[in-house]
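step 4 of 6: structure.
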Amino acid sequence: MLNEERYFDSNPAVRKIAKELYDKVKNLPIVSPHGHVDPKLFAQNKPFPDPTELFIIPDHYIYRMLYSQGYSLEELGIPTIDGSPVENDGRKIWQIFADNFYLYSGTPTGAWLTQEFEEVFGIDEKLNGKNAQKVYDQMLEKLQSPEFLPRTLFEKFNIEVLSTTDAASDNLEYHKQIKDSGWTGNIIPTFRPDAVVNILADNWKEEIQKLSSVENVDISDYKTFVKVIESRREYFKKMGAVATDQGVLSPYTHKLSESEADAIFQRALKGMATGDDEKKFIGNMLMEMARMSSEDGLVMQIHPGVLRNHNEEIFKKFGLDKGGDIPIQTEYTYNMHELLNAFGNHPNFKVIVFTLDETTYARELAPLAGHYPAMKLGPAWWFNDSIQGMRRFREMTTETAGFYNTVGFNDDTRAFLSIPARHDLARRVDCNFLARQVSEHIIDIEDAHNISYQLANGLVKKAYNL
Amino acid sequence: MLNEERYFDSNPAVRKIAKELYDKVKNLPIVSPHGHVDPKLFAQNKPFPDPTELFIIPDHYIYRMLYSQGYSLEELGIPTIDGSPVENDGRKIWQIFADNFYLYSGTPTGAWLTQEFEEVFGIDEKLNGKNAQKVYDQMLEKLQSPEFLPRTLFEKFNIEVLSTTDAASDNLEYHKQIKDSGWTGNIIPTFRPDAVVNILADNWKEEIQKLSSVENVDISDYKTFVKVIESRREYFKKMGAVATDQGVLSPYTHKLSESEADAIFQRALKGMATGDDEKKFIGNMLMEMARMSSEDGLVMQIHPGVLRNHNEEIFKKFGLDKGGDIPIQTEYTYNMHELLNAFGNHPNFKVIVFTLDETTYARELAPLAGHYPAMKLGPAWWFNDSIQGMRRFREMTTETAGFYNTVGFNDDTRAFLSIPARHDLARRVDCNFLARQVSEHIIDIEDAHNISYQLANGLVKKAYNL
Amino acid sequence: MLNEERYFDSNPAVRKIAKELYDKVKNLPIVSPHGHVDPKLFAQNKPFPDPTELFIIPDHYIYRMLYSQGYSLEELGIPTIDGSPVENDGRKIWQIFADNFYLYSGTPTGAWLTQEFEEVFGIDEKLNGKNAQKVYDQMLEKLQSPEFLPRTLFEKFNIEVLSTTDAASDNLEYHKQIKDSGWTGNIIPTFRPDAVVNILADNWKEEIQKLSSVENVDISDYKTFVKVIESRREYFKKMGAVATDQGVLSPYTHKLSESEADAIFQRALKGMATGDDEKKFIGNMLMEMARMSSEDGLVMQIHPGVLRNHNEEIFKKFGLDKGGDIPIQTEYTYNMHELLNAFGNHPNFKVIVFTLDETTYARELAPLAGHYPAMKLGPAWWFNDSIQGMRRFREMTTETAGFYNTVGFNDDTRAFLSIPARHDLARRVDCNFLARQVSEHIIDIEDAHNISYQLANGLVKKAYNL
C-alpha cells in the first residue's frame, strides 16, 4: 500500500530529484527533541496493550475526527473524570474506527496510521469495516511478541535521542530508572513549568505544593518561587535536559518588578488573582525563563496561541487534551519585543518559537529569525504538522529566514509508534520542497544535499546542543 | 474555446486522473443549497431581457471591474435611487463591456462568462470590441426563443434543488405560485432574518412593520419578536425551507437575558439604539437562531465578515450590493465559543460557517469543524469562489477537518445562467485537487472516486437534509 | 551557473510557455518607479568602491542573515554612530560573507547576487570560502574599469526611468547636477515627507528647520506647514517627480479640523506630543497628501505596516535600516475608509498601496482595488519581493482585482547593481504564473502575451503617468 514515492510531486523532473535526496537521508537516525511520549514506557518496558488502547483511546488526533462525525466519546471508550462507565469493549471501538477509517483520507493522521500499520505491523490492506477484526487480531498478536516491547522498538526505530516533556515538579523517577537500568536508549527530560506558572488554573496551588515538596522549600513568595525554578532547571539539566518548553496563550513578554510579581503571586496564593494578573505573571515568567536560559544554556521553546478546552462540556466530563483545543490569532512582533531586546542578541541564549497561526510565518517569524541571532523557527506545529502544512512552512519562511534559521523536525507526539512515520513524512516533504527548488534552478543539487541532511539531522542537533 | 481539460494541472500524471474523476461526476444533478436567484423568474417564466439587462446591470461581480477601471455606474446603466437618468442604450453598455472583456482574464467571472457564452448561447469566439454587436444579436435571438425560458433552462441545467434567499417578512408568494403551477422544479426558500435583526439599519422599523403585518401581530417587545421569528421559520419550513442564513459583521455570539434583549429592542423602536446595542442584539439573535435550529431542525448558515457599502457615495446614489462590500478580519475561536458550547454538541443542530478571511481556514475553522459534531465548513465564498480560492480552501482545511466535515459547493449567485458554469468549475477544481493527491499517493484512486462524488452531490444533500 | 530556464516550473508544458512569454519581454527597458538608489552616484559618476563596500556594508538584506547566524555587525564592518571602530579590512569581511554564502540558498538575495556576479562581473563559479579572495580580485579589477562607471552601467542596464526617494527638505541638488550635465539618463525624484510628518521622531524639529530653510519660510503653525508641503511637491514635480511616498506604521486615515491639527503641531514643536497625537497627525497628513495628489496629479504611494528598529541595541549603536525592521498585522478596510471615501472615486487621484501582510491581499486589498477607480495594488514588497512571494501575490490578487489593477514591478532597492537581476526575476515569475494559467486553460496565449507585456512595461508607465 505504501508507495515508495509517496508525497513527492508527480512531475517526474521533481520526483526524481526528491527520491535522490530522500534516499540519502531516509536512514539517518531520528532525533526527537520535543515530544510527549511517557518515559514510564521505557522504564517498565512492558508490552503495549491492545490496538484500541494503543491507537485510539490516548490519541485525540484520532478520536476528534470520529467525535466530529457524531460518535460520542463514551462510545469511543474515552475515560470519564468521575469514572462513569464508557464503552470498554476494545473490539467494538475498533470496529467504529475501522468503519470510519475513510474519514482520515487526506489527513496526516491517516498517512501516519497507514505507515504504522504497514511498516510496524505488516498489515498490507486498507483498514475498513470488513477487515476490522482480522486486523485487530493480527496487531494483537504482534503486540504480545518480544519484538514489540518499547525498548526493542526504540532501537529498531533508530532513535538517537528522544525528549520527553515533564512538569516542573516531576522528580524524573522514570528517567532515573531508565538510566539505572543500564539500557542505553537516550531519553532525556524537558522542563515544562506551565502548571506552576498558570496561576488561574484550578490545580495551581496543588502544583505549587508539589513543587514545594519536591524541593523541600516552602514556596510562599515570588523570590522563593524563582529560586525553586532555577533549582529545578539545574536538576533537569543534570538529568540530561537540553531545553525547556512553555505553552502560553500569547507570547506577550514583559518583566515585572520583583514587588509587582510578588503582589500577584500573593493574590494567586489567596485565590484572588485576576485574568490580567495571570497574563502579566506569565509574560514576566517568559522573561525570567529567558534570563535563566541565558545563564544555564537550556534552550527555550515557546508554543503559543491555543485556547485550551474550548468545548467545556467535554472538558468537564473528560478533562484536558480531548481534541477541543483551538488556535487563535497570534502576534509576535510586539509581544516578543521586550524578550528579544533583552536577550535576542545574547550569545548564550537560544529561543525556538512555534506557531499555529501561519499568517505569522512570512510576516513576523521569518523576519525576526532572519535578524536576531538568538531566535530560531520551530517546525510546522500540530495541525500544521502535515504534508501541506510543512510545504507552506518552507514556502513562507525560507526566502526571509533561509533554511539555517530553522531547527529540523519535531514530532511532538505522545504516540510512540508514530514517530518513524512522522519523521519519514517530514523528510519526504522537505526533500520534495528542495527537489522542486532544484528543478526550478533556485538552488543547485549540491546545496540541496547539504540542506536535506541539515533538515533531517544536522540543524536539530545544533539547535538543541545535542 | 472551452478546453475539455480546463482548470486541471498540465502535468499529465495529474490531468489524467483529474479527467477520470471529473468524467464520473460532471453529469451529476446540480444541488444549489444557497443562492440568490429570484423565485419570480420561475413563477412568471417570462423570457429574459437583452444581454445587457441579463449579464451586466444586475451583477456587481461584473461591473465592479469596469468601475475600478474608470467607467461610471451611470455609463453602465446601473439605476439610481432617485431615478436620475443613466445610460439606457443596452448596446452602448454592451460595447463598453466587450471592449474591456480582457480585464476579466484570470478571474472567475471571466471563466463563468466564457462558459455561459459558449455552452448556453453557442458563442464560439472570444468577446471583444469588434464582435460585440454581433454577439449581442446572437444572444438576443436566443433569449427570445422558448428554449431560453427560465423553467426550460432549469430543466436543461439538471438542477435537483435550488434554494433562494428570502426575507423573514416575505410571504413567499412566488414560491406558492411555483408550487401551485404544477411545475415540478424543486425551488425552496431560505429564511434570512437580517433585515429585522440589524436594528440600526435605516429601514429596520419598516421591516418590523412588514413582519408584524405578515404575521398579524403587533411586534412591540422582544418576546413577541422571538415568537414571530419562530412562527416565520415554521412557515418557511412548511414551504420547503431546510436552512436559515445570517450575514453578520462578526460571528460574535452571546445570549442576553430577556430583559436586556428587550431593553435594546425598546431603544431600537425609539430609534435610540447604539452600535454596541446592535452588536449585542445580533450576537444574541445568533444564539436564539441556534436554539431554534436545535428545535426545528433548520440548518443554520452564518456568513460573517463583510463591511457593507464601503463606498458611501455609490451607496447613496445606487443603493446596496453595488460592488462596494469589502471583507474584514474575522475571528471565530472566541466569537463562536458561546454558541458552540451551548449547541455544538447537540444532535439535532447543524451550523455551516463561511468566511472571507482565509487565514481562519487552517487556524480556526478546520480545528473547530474537526471537533464539534454540529459544525461544518461552508465552501470557499464570494471573492474566494474561484479556481485558486477553492484550491486554497481544500489545501488549508482538509488535513485538519477532512473532506467529510465540508458540505459540497454553494453557487451563492443571483445570476441564474451562471449556475452550471459555477458548479462545473467547482467540480473540476475539486477533482483536480483529488487527482493531485492521488498522483502523490496521499489518497488512493478508490477513495478519490468516493470523495469526488461526495463533494459534487453526496455531502451537500446530507448537510442540508435534502 | 545561471540556467536560462530558472524560476520556471519544471513541468515541460508550463516551462515551454513561460519561456515563450519571457523571450518577448526579457529585453524590454527597465522602468523603476520606486527605489532608493542615491542620485549622487550618477551626479558624480565615480567608480564604485571595492566589493565589500559595494555589496555588504550598505545592504541590510545581506548582512541581516550573517547577523542572525552570530556574526556581529562590528565584524561585518557596519559603521557605528559614535565612530567606535569596526572591522575595516574589506577582504576579511568578504571572507566571512563567502564562507557563509550557502546561507542565502533559497533566498531572493541569493538569487540576485548570483545573477549580478555572473552577468555583471562575469564570475562563473559559486562563491565560497575557497574562492573568496580570487573572486574579490576579479570584481575589484572590473570595478576600476570605465565600463563600470554608474552612468555606463545605467545605459547598459537599459533603464528607461529610475525614481529615487528624496526627503521633503531635499533641494535635489544631485538631480539638478544630473540634468545640468547634459547626460540623458532619466532619473527622477520622489517626494517622501516622512521625516517632517513623524512628529515623535528624535530629529523632527531639525527636519522642520531644514524644511523652513529650504523654503525660506518660518514653519510655526500647521497652516504654513501644509503650504510648504504643497510648495515642495510643486518643486519636486517641476524636477520630474511623478509620485510621492509615505511609510507609515498603520494606513489609518482621518482628517482633523485645522485647529485640531494645529494644536498637535504646536505640542510637537514644544516636544510635548503624544503617541496618539502622532497617529492622528499622520492619519491627517495621509488625507492632506491625498487631497494634494487629487490637485497636482502626483501619484500617492503608501507603504505601511513595519515596526522600525525593533532591535534597540542595534538601533542605538548603528542607526536606522540595519535589518531590524519587522512587519506587523495591517488593516486596510477600516483604516483607508475615510481616504477612499473622500478621494477614491476622484478622476484625478491615484493611490498605490503596498503591504507586508499578505493576509490582506485576497481579503482586503484586491476587493478594494477591484472596486475603487483610484486605488491600485503595488507589487509584492520587501520580504515578499521574492519568487514565492510574487507567486502568492498573483495567486491571491488576480482573481478579484485582475491584472490591470496592479502596477508592474518595483525594485525598491538601494543596490543599483541588483536592478537588472530583480526585474529579470520578476519578469520570469510573472511569465511563469501566466504560463501556468495558459497550460491550465484559464487564460489563452494571446491574452498571456498582452498581460506579460503589461506587467513588464505597460502598467507601470500607465500607473505612474510616465
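step 5 of 6: annotate
 - Chain B touches chain C through 48 residues (CB under 8 Å).
 - The first strand of chain B starts at residue 30 and ends at 32.
step 6 of 6: archive
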